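USER: Fancy drafting a protein?

ASSISTANT:
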Amino acid sequence: MTDHDAQSNFFQYLLVLRARYRIVLFVLAVTVVTTTVVSLIIPKTYVATASLLVDSKDNQTLESILTSRQQSYQTQVDIITSQRVALKVVHDLKLAESPVAIRNFEDDAKGRGSIEDWLAQSLLKRLKVDTSSVTSVIQIIYSANDPKFAAAVANAFAKAYIDTNLELRVEPARQTSEWFDDQLKTLRDNLEQAQSKLTAYQKEKNIVSVDERFDVENTRLNELSSQLVQAQNQTYDIAVRQKLGAQAVSSGGSLENIPEVIQNPFIQSLKSDILKNEAQLKDLSTQLGPNHPQYQRLMSETQSLRERLDQEMKRVITSLEGSTHQSQQREVELKNAIEAQRAKVFELKQYRDQLAPLEQEVEAAQRAYDTAMQRFTVSKVDSRANQTNVSILTPAVEPLEASRPKVVLNIVLAVIIGSMLGMGVAFLLELADRRVRSISDLAGEPGVPLLAVLNSKKAIIPKHPLLVRIMNGASHLLSPG
């Protein structure tokens, strides 16, 4: 389609509207008047809004609750729009006692169901809950024909929601607390029985300490092992010295270098006396001579001391054999004692192995009791909560202006819609009854020749073959001669 055709069509539309403007104005007037009358007649609707603030933290619980913001808010919306909250609103506002409500219920429900449920459903139909994923504010919006009633219902829903939220939190916690209280008695009895069985078994098997590191029998075994090592070392030392002494006796060597001889105080005393006598004999030999009776007496005494010294040294060497035998006997006794103690320790170890299941039973009973006690404490604290994490941010107030109908907006829309309807009706009538409005209405019709177009300025004669012949004939008749 060219620009000329588009302009021609638009010009034709304008001609149609100019020709049928009365129809357009009539439809527009009817639409505007009807809309205005309806807007003024229908009951006005007032909207009241109560805002609630939902805190993500709950200071009256010991549990950590981790839920997403969207899930939490959707849960709150479901609670607000629940039948339970609506029934609480009906009860708080005493709507079931209203004669108008009773009459409307009888007319609508025909006696089926309860008036409380019917009123609750009616309230929920006019209730709207608005939430946002950005803020923590929930808006309870209620619409009614009475502004005072709208505000009262919105506030009643906010209060009923907070009360129901607290009930939904406290009631399960109270039931859980009571259940755990009963379970704790059983778990406490189980723990006491397990501890009694463990104590009785320890007493029967004489097990003082469960830990082997603090057991008396293990300590005694360690002490006996230390004593055996010392006895073995002592036996070895005595045997070595006894062997050296025996070799010295058999070979006729000196016994004075034997450690037992050196350490014997009596032998050392004899040796000291002999040295003194020898010193005196040397002096007497010079002064009196070897034949002097005093010299002879001292010589005899010294010889007696030497014989006694030899006898004492031999006795010490002989005593080493007895000490070796005693030390070996001590070793045997310690080995026997260690074996007996080891058997006793092994027996106690077997008792402790049998003790392990009893200990595990006590530990399991203790863990179960501690876990139940912890859960009981949490439930007990939650069951005593008197606040929720929801508070009224802004209570609903009685709206001063109606939200619906909006008369001015309706009139503006009626003007727009009426104009469109009027033009539509005009075009429909034009299609039903076509009339020639311009040249283009005839130019496109087949079988309809266009002879001429007359207007106030000039005549337009197209070059049609028939018209050309007529015009030529007329010119021939009018020419001179």
In short: The two ends are 53 Å apart (CA to CA). The longest strand covers residues 46-54. The chain has 14 helices and six strands. Residues 456-461, 474-481 have pLDDT under 50 and may be disordered.
